[in-house]
Amino acid sequence: MQRREFGKLLGAAAIAPVFTPLGPFGPAERRAWSLVADVAECCSCEIPCSCNFGRPETDRACHGSRLIRIREGQLDGAPLAGINFVVTFHMGQWTRIYIDDSMSQSQSATLERLLPVAFAGFDRGARIKERVPLTVQGGAGTLRFSVPDSTVEMRLLPGLGGEPIRVSGLPNPAYQEYVQYESVVHTHAGPDATWSYVGTNGFQSVMRANG
Q1: In terms of DSSP bridges, do strands 78-79 and 84-90 run parallel, antiparallel, or are they unpaired?
Q2: pLDDT of residue 58
Q3: What pLDDT was estimated at residue 30?
Q4: How large is the greatest C-alpha to C-alpha distance in the chain, in angstroms?
Q5: CB within 8 A of 192, min separation 6: which ones?
Q6: Which residue of 12, 71, 104, 209 lies most exposed, with the fewest beta carbons within 10 A?
Q7: How many domains does the chain have?
Q8: DSSP 75-132
């Protein structure tokens, strides 16, 4: 599957109504949900990543790691606040989903039910879903997150007058309040692939979606 097609399907899955939430691998289970989440990601693309602007490249691999921390929301009445996980991916090929092992078993069970409806593309492509230690550290203009196989450290890319570069109107509900970053460390070492990137695209954003 080309990255352009895969990216469009991921966006559609996040905003589709409850009876038609489609991922790239088939229909998801019917459930009512809504969420607000903080998103942070680095990938192997140059700055800015054309995928995030709805114009993915199709001639090279895109490797990324995305941190998702849900602030608020519900799935059939079950609360989603405090659910945290990382998705490491080769876009259009596979994902590996790392679930914060500090979450309760109840939160993990709720996430398992949420993934096929709110994150259908990531879920259907998952080669593994496992509970692991997840660390997140932030400073002035920096963010670092890691799981045993993947580590990301990013820093703000300064704009005019040293101010953050903010982008609005991107064609995906996961890219609201988008702020441009660049990778300082972006590594992965697992059974599917190994990579290491510096100076590539990074961002922080807010995801607001429901179905």
Answers
A1: unpaired
A2: 61
A3: 62
A4: 48
A5: 90, 94, 96, 127
A6: 104
A7: 1
A8: ETTEE-TT-EEEEEEETTTEEEEEEETTS-HHHHHHHHHHHHHHSHHHHHTEEEEEEE
Cβ contacts of residue 193 below 8 Å, gap of 6+? Answer: 63, 90
Phi-psi domain of 12 (left: phi exceeds 0; alpha: psi -120 through 50; beta: other):
alpha
Q: What is the pLDDT of residues 165-204, one digit of tens each?
A: 999 999 999 999 999 999 999 999 999 999 999 999 999 9
What is the span of the domain harbouring residue 87? 3-210
66 closest CA partner among 122, 131, 14? 122
Q: How many C-beta atoms surround the C-beta of residue 133 within 10 A?
A: 11
Residue written as tokens 């109840």?
Answer: 106
169: which 2 tokens?
Answer: 């109107």
Residue 82 in this model has a pLDDT that exceeds 80:
yes
Residue type, 51: C
